[in-house]
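Let us practice reading a record.
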Amino acid sequence: MAKSALTFTLRIDGARETLAALRKLPKDANNELRQASLAISRAVAEKAKAAGAREGGQAAAVARTVRAQRDRVPAVVAGGTRRLGRHKTPAFNLLFASEFGQNRRTGWYAAPKYAGSAGRQYRPHRGRQGIWFFPTVEAEQADIARRWQQAADEVIEKFGEG
């Protein structure tokens, strides 16, 4: 089965080496790092939800599906199979158009009575430049990396290796 949600795992310099060092420590060390990463991810997910709500329309509906994922590095998930709107469309069907825009409509809603700029469902397509989810997460990248490195250093110090 294909994935129905978008998982954004945050890139952090030196994470691979840090995770390798953590593998040598007890399992509790990894659990503690997962908890710290989850707290960081929750903060980012809340900011992404707020950005989607500000955007309005389909982005606001999809923003309700944004959540933090428990992992050793911070990860945020959006989309999924949750049904949204009056037509009960799965969130993953709305996610990319709300994030990157769409130039034309396809599917049942492409009928002439729905066409026209007055009833535009999404912003025009912007290529790889996101509208609400990716810009919000990327704006937090430096703070996320700093907070994660600090949490990882604390875990390594607490459980030995440092």
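A brief commentary: The mean pLDDT is 85.
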